[in-house]
Amino acid sequence: MRRATYPGAVNEDTQPQPADAEDEAVLALAHALLDAARQGDGDTLLPLIDQGAPVDLRDSAGNSPLMLAAYHGHAELVRELAARGADADLANDRGQSPLAGAAFKGFTDVATALLEAGADPHLGSPSALETARYFERAEIVALLEAPRG
């Protein structure tokens, strides 16, 4: 049997290889990090980040741990992630910022934590301010419109 050798030929050397155990372990760790953020489980998430896991890891929809913590109402975890360098303005694949997620859900304490971390209320599509106005989150609108030093 002759092996195809022209450019673009598919043979056993170019076939996709099955993921090895290390790849599977990395994927499992990534899922565990994102699940911990979603659940507000800082005891699991923060030590892994402190050991070098990427603080701005993203899921298949572009959500970072900070985005997931914000969207699920975990203000203290948001503060801890921001303190470890998480990007407070990192939008997901739909252009939504963590601050817009907090505004959508009505989490004033999370919005406060994100603003303290430097989040911009005008970023994203729709922006956090637009979201807060649309859903009539008066307390969050006031926070977002307040002058910052």
Automatic annotation (TrEMBL):
Highest taxon above the source species: Bacteria
Record has Phosphoprotein as a keyword: no
Upper classification of the organism: Bacteria, Bacillati, Actinomycetota, Actinomycetes, Micrococcales
Protein name from the UniProt record: Ankyrin repeat-containing protein
Ranges for the ANK repeats: 61-93, 94-126
Keywords: ANK repeat, Repeat
PANTHER family assigned: ANKYRIN REPEAT DOMAIN-CONTAINING PROTEIN 39-RELATED (PTHR24171)
Region (Disordered): 1-21
InterPro entries given in the database record: Ankyrin_rpt, Ankyrin_rpt-contain_sf
Organism, as annotated: Brachybacterium faecium (strain ATCC 43885 / DSM 4810 / JCM 11609 / LMG 19847 / NBRC 14762 / NCIMB 9860 / 6-10)
Pfam short name (any one): Ank_2
Listed SUPFAM superfamilies: Ankyrin repeat (SSF48403)
Membrane-spanning ranges: none
